[in-house]
Amino acid sequence: MSTITVSPAPPEKIEPPRAIGPEHFVNRELSWLEFNARVLEEAEDDTNPLLERLKFLSIFSSNLDEFMMVRVSGVRSQMQGLADPEDRLPEQLSIHEQFQQVHARTHALVSRQYACLKDHVLPKLAEAGIRLVSPSELSGEQKAFIDEYFQQTVFPVLTPMAIDPSHPTPHLRSRGLYLAAIIEQKAYRPGAPKKLLAVVQLPTVLPRLIRVPGEADQFILLEQVVASRLGQLFGGSEILCWTSMRITRDADLDIDGDQVLHDLSEAVEEGLKALRHREVVRLEIAAGTNEKLLDQIRRPLGILAPELYEIDGPLDLTAFTDWYANLDRYPQLRDEPFTPRRPPGLEEGADVFRTIRKRDVLIHHPYESFQCVVDFLHAAAEDPDVLAIKQTLYRAGSESPVIRALINAAEKGKNVTAVVELLARFDEQSNVKWARQMERAGVHVVYGFVNLKTHCKVTLVVRREGEKLRRYVHVGTGNYNSATARIYTDFGLFTRRRKFGEDATALFNFLTSYSYGHTWQRFTVSPQDLQRRILELIARETERARSGAGGRIIAKLNALVDPEVIEALYRASQAGVPIDLLIRGSCCLRPGIPGISETIRVLSILDRFLEHSRVYVFGQGDDADVLLASAYWMPRNFRRRVELMFPLIEPMLKRRMLHRILPTLLADNVKAREMQADGTYHRVEREPAAPLLRAQLKFLTDAQTVDFENEVPD
Questions:
Q1: Distance CA 605, CA 38 (A)
Q2: Catalytic site residue 455?
Q3: Would you state the pLDDT for residue 163?
Q4: pLDDT band at residue 396, thresholds of 50, 70 and 90?
Q5: 530 and 516 in one domain?
Q6: Could you tell me the residue range of the domain that residue 516 belongs to?
Q7: Which of these, 627, 634, 391, 389, lies nearest to 522 by C-alpha position?
Q8: Which of 194, 441, 586, 713 is most solvent-facing, going by the fewest CB within 10 Å?
Q9: What is the pLDDT of residues 186-222, one digit of tens each?
Q10: Which of 364, 378, 455, 474 is the catalytic position?
């Protein structure tokens, strides 16, 4: 069994604290781009299977879309004086410098992305039998197939649009893929211009990658099929030049609570409609586009020079998720499949309530099955002794067995309450749909608060047992989403402890009726207490170090942005507290600065699964406080969200976290990168004689071979 080592060691002599200034903070946007650069590194890593590399190229594109729609659009609005920043970091860059540097770094990363695709991934996939072909490479039989496919399937759903004074510029959808062309009419028509701009949107209802018949797996892009037939679409015109293009619009949905008079779901739907007409913040266009055509596209959109991305390859690489999802006959090009473990007592058909009565159960997803959570809800729905079920829902997904279980319970007469967060970004429409479907089934649906996102993850089941009522609670670090639970790492805790049940009841009363006054026993909740409690625990470890009693901090987070917490960590480091931070994404703290952060190490693990769990440890040894949470350390999580932090109480579970899980993550020398003081990341250097340790691979192996329940005596 491993133990947590203290690294780096505190300095022998602690110098007087240095002042903390703007130079000690990393810009949030640039830090996020370094995270996406680490995603790109996984695509560039030739030790990863080919389809996994293609998956990372797709994830890079998807991440970048969201970044442009939300973060870069905010920087643009601030630069134009249209908005104020929500959270100010004490950094040195002006808003104009941020805008320029963000786009410069993004351009460099996109160039690397397409070099990886064209020079490495696609050629190697072609060698393996998966080819992306151009129209000129098609055989006669394949051309005939494409001709028929176009006539029967594509042509009927296309709408060619010429743009002139009587046909104004059509609305271009964000992230829609278009072909644009300059066309010249062959025959004169009175009142019509001789040359004009024309566009056609590629239909999203059709596959982007079209498989053509043949022995190998060959595919052609939909835009190439349509482009070669533009003359047919614009009959009577000559196609002088054409290009493919894609725009990205500002998509930061902001609902003003003071203006929501009746139904929040209706306000969200209206807000989603308004997003369709937001400003364009990025234009992607095929490299080598004719200058006159480019000017006619760019000018009406108001695109600034850095926002133009000339792409040497297919636009929008998220389309290649089709290959990753559907080409199952190439197992050698993928990571090995695995079957998540079910903990003892939570096997299929087990009495889950009996198991949870005996002990707390910690689930480590995806190594341990999310089906345990679904089964818990199904058991609650079917059990005649269960009286009530209450649950928060942030991202339930498009197909949700969790929501099906809640609907089933309501239809069986249970008292079911669902607190649905309608403003979960990019899941708004799905959440509105689920909310209405649950309401029709008899679920009591509550939307939480207009100005506070409900981000905590908690389920409460109230069960009659003899003459008493017993409360069973599930709390977690991840969403109740069965799809992401297979690819995100998270923790879930089942417990029937009385104080957890009382706190869960009070939390739901707060969410459904603004009920205040409860004294929290096990939960720490934002926006009330979470930041204050984190700062108290950091200060406690700081004082322990100053007094010679030692101190220790470990935090596993998605992001570290909050300036007050960063300054508190700097003070703790100056006092000599060893601090290990496992931060997947943005980190605005600079580690390793002499006199400021010498005892702080920041690691980021990018691997097969998205590191999504949040764990905080304050103290040394088995007596340390081990806390799990829905929140990471950002101002929005502390002030504008309802978040939840809760402790591991059962000694066996604490020891599992302290002696097995966290030491494994901290010792990763394959997929871990270490942050430098300048904000860059380098792969962790492995000692020549040290064995390879890939944390996620070890967890996968352990899930099949280790009996965690009996490893450490209770």
A1: 9
A2: yes
A3: 78
A4: confident
A5: no
A6: 352-520
A7: 627
A8: 713
A9: 876 666 677 889 999 999 999 999 999 987 899 999 9
A10: 455
